[in-house]
Amino acid sequence: MMKGNWIARKVSGLKRRLLSQKLHYQKISYSQSGEDLIVKYIFDVIGISRPSYIDVGAHHPYNFSNTALFYETGSSGINIEPDFSLFQAFRKYRKRDINLNIGIGKEKTVADFYLISASTLNTFSKEEALRYQDEGNYLIKEVVKLPVETLTNVLNMYCKEGFPQFLNIDAEGVDEIIIRSIDYEQNYPVVICVETLSFSTSGKGLKNQELIDYVTDKGYMVYADTHINTIFVRQDRWKKAP
Question: Ranges for the Methyltransferase FkbM domain (predicted)?
Fold first, then answer.
């Protein structure tokens, strides 16, 4: 009987140690498909422990966020979310960040912003909004006027030390406009994560290969692709990594 109790205690102790090890090695991700862990690995390898970031179309401070993990580990940056109802959560939960309730576009203006019944699809693109509606499951709830700034103006106002090291874009219809507005010779991010799959409820979304080729032509390599998003890293920084 005593021997049985001793064995039970040993087994119980082993289970506790295994659980402790599991908790020690587990990794938390806030992203839709683990993009934040991939990006974190890139920065860890090249020796940037607390990367700055700019998140265009941030949507939510934590849910499906590619920057929340960095905020939780001490980084700070800029969140851009045009939907005012979503923006409020950033004021509450991402107080260390700069939070902007605007859109990003080709020029400084005021533009129509289409609020879709699925808030992840909100867009400044009328063409995209109508396409979502034509899919049959989504409705345009409201069209509101919102201020739009250029990415260059935002950087000039808030990033005096240069482009944030991580650029995340999920801007439904204007991703390519933002990517093409960057001066890749003078002021650019180290890592880019951008949605490169067109939306489709039937699973027939198409990859934007033209956008992928454009970014790689600007000095980046494709490090990973999660089907929805493509993650790029500057070739020169990755080659210098230990």
Answer: 55-220
